[in-house]
Amino acid sequence: MKVSVHAVNFAVDKKLVDFVQERLDKLEKYYDKVVSADVFLKVEKTSDKENKIAEIKINVPGDDFLVKKQCKTFEEAVELSSESLERLLVKRKEKISSHI
Predict the structure, then answer these.
(1) What's the CA gap between 76 and 85, in Å, rounded?
(2) Structural domain tally of the chain?
(3) Would you call 89 exposed, middle or buried from its count of C-beta atoms within 10 A (0-12, 13-18, 19+)?
């Protein structure tokens, strides 16, 4: 799967990009028709500690899934987002296989 990581208002390091890639590669075992993923990492300028936002858009044939999570760290936000995407992809796979 092709993963594009976009950092908004900060420079992203290689370690974080590798973490995102590794985590999203795991999604393919739930639904193998994933074409690509766009990951937007943003830092919100607030006094709140939970100011890291991960927005993940997954492209599958005929549909796009968008999940957005806000946490204290990007790793936590990516983790929660990918767990939500796992549930969405499993649901989609079950829906498609029930129509066949």
Answers:
(1) 14
(2) 1
(3) buried
